[in-house]
Design brief:
By secondary structure, the chain is of the alpha/beta class. The protein folds into two domains: 31 residues, no CATH class; 174 residues, Beta-carbonic Anhydrase, Chain A (3-Layer(aba) Sandwich). Helix content is 52%, strand content 14%. It is built from ten helices and five strands, in the order H-H-E-H-E-H-E-H-H-H-H-H-E-E-H. The chain has a five-stranded mixed β-sheet with strand order 2-1-3-4-5. The chain is globular and about 55 Å long.
């Protein structure tokens, strides 16, 4: 890739935005008030705002390998805290995608160096749902189902946090689990019942 092209594209983009709204960048500089936090995968084929049809300022976005929400990852925890407590988003979305390289890598018997502890989180998801996953004959279908279950478990991890629990009580924050079908372009709502999940884990994870 010729990186000069990136800056040329940027100039074209600026002109296009100003032709539609001469105050576009003045308004952009006034601050942000996003409605949702989107936690997605770093995969270069998945563009958060574009697949949702949203523009700058409408979504607060965090991306990492396989859209993980780990309580020991200060990066994602800081993003959640800032989005929920300070920006006061009303929706938090964990969005995985089919054909996820991180999910497939986690299921390989290979030493992947620094990736090992990160991918271990996905292996833990497999362990939790091993019987159901092993019952799926097709390897591709099994990986797709693991993508969905990984999204579900990351939603559970979100629900375990104090910031999310407090926002649920005080203003009805909603947690959502989605999957992006990279083969069709469709967003799929897994319809995760986070309120039931919260109720089921309340005895252990409830935080005042």
């Amino acid at each position: 890739m010729n990186l000069d092209r990136v800056f040329e594209n940027n100039e074209v983009w600026i002109k296009e935005k100003l032709s539609v709204n001469p105050k576009y960048f003045d308004e952009l500089g006034e601050g942000q008030n996003p409605e949702l936090l989107f936690i997605g995968c770093s995969d270069s084929r998945v563009t958060a705002e574009e697949l949702m049809g949203l523009g700058p300022g409408e979504a607060f976005v965090h991306r990492n390998i396989a859209n993980m929400v780990s309580g020991t990852d200060l990066n994602v925890m800081s993003v959640v805290e800032y989005a929920v407590v300070h920006l006061k988003v009303n929706h938090v979305v964990v969005c995985g995608h089919y054909a996820c390289g991180g999910v497939k890598a986690a299921m390989q018997s290979a030493d992947l160096g620094i990736l090992n502890p990160w991918l271990r989180n996905i292996r833990d998801v497999y362990r939790l749902h091993k019987n159901k996953l092993n019952a799926i004959a097709s390897e591709e279908d099994r990986y797709d189902r693991l993508v969905e279950l990984n999204v579900q478990e990351q939603c559970v991890n979100l629900i375990k946090t104090a910031a999310v629990q407090k926002a649920v009580r005080e203003r009805g924050l909603k947690v959502h689990g989605w999957v992006f079908d990279i083969h069709s372009g469709k967003l799929i709502d897994l319809k995760i019942d986070f309120e039931t999940i919260l109720e089921n884990i309340r005895e252990i994870y409830h935080l005042d």
